[in-house]
Amino acid sequence: MWLQKYSIQASTWENGSIYAPYDEALTLKNKSLEVEPYLNGHSIYLIGLTGSGKTTVGKILSHVLGYSFYDRLRYCRGSLQRNNLLFLLVEKKGIIVWLDVPLETLARRIAAVGTHSRPLLHYEHGDPYTKALKRLSYLLEQRGKNYAKANARVSLEEIAGKLGCRDASDLTPIEIAIEELEQIEEYLKEEGGMATAGF
């Protein structure tokens, strides 16, 4: 998934099913206003395992930042997570953010909706949770080194701890988007802004 700056502000959430309490929405908007000057219009690339929330959080961020949202599955045949050359190219053009979700949380999410919409998980045998957990473990083993190269890491386990949630699955997409903006801001400040980061 990637987000790219565009000149016209979106007027509605692209995913109309997202509801945010006023205080969450206000916090998100304020954080986006803090981060926006550092972004300087550069793209944001979201990576993570299937079911990690790239599409949901990406649509929220695209709305609040005034970016266009592109789904990698629709626009790219190569896989950023597996292709080192593509990863290096993307790294030069934008900010790579890893949505790091505990495998058990992902397996529960996917088992709840079924694996039929997740081609990478469709071939395992067994109950939906075990099937998803087994395949996700394999995928993380294959892709983990590239995920670790991301400019920013958004750990749902750490967010849950910080907010006092008992489990990462209790987090709202808005809470995750806020943390993503905080991690992007921290990365850009550490790098001294986009110019220093090679953009």
From TrEMBL:
Q: Tell me which GO cellular component terms the UniProt record holds.
A: chloroplast; cytosol
Keyword match Methyltransferase: no
Q: Which InterPro entries match?
A: P-loop_NTPase (IPR027417), Shikimate/glucono_kinase (IPR031322)
- Pfam families per the UniProt record, alphabetical: SKI
Keywords, sorted A to Z: Amino-acid biosynthesis, Aromatic amino acid biosynthesis
What GO terms are given for molecular function? shikimate kinase activity
One GO BP annotation is:
amino acid biosynthetic process
Q: Which domain of life is it from?
A: Eukaryota
Q: What is the similarity comment for this entry?
A: Belongs to the shikimate kinase family.
| Stated name of the protein | Tetratricopeptide repeat (TPR)-like superfamily protein
Organism, by scientific name, is Hibiscus syriacus (Rose of Sharon)
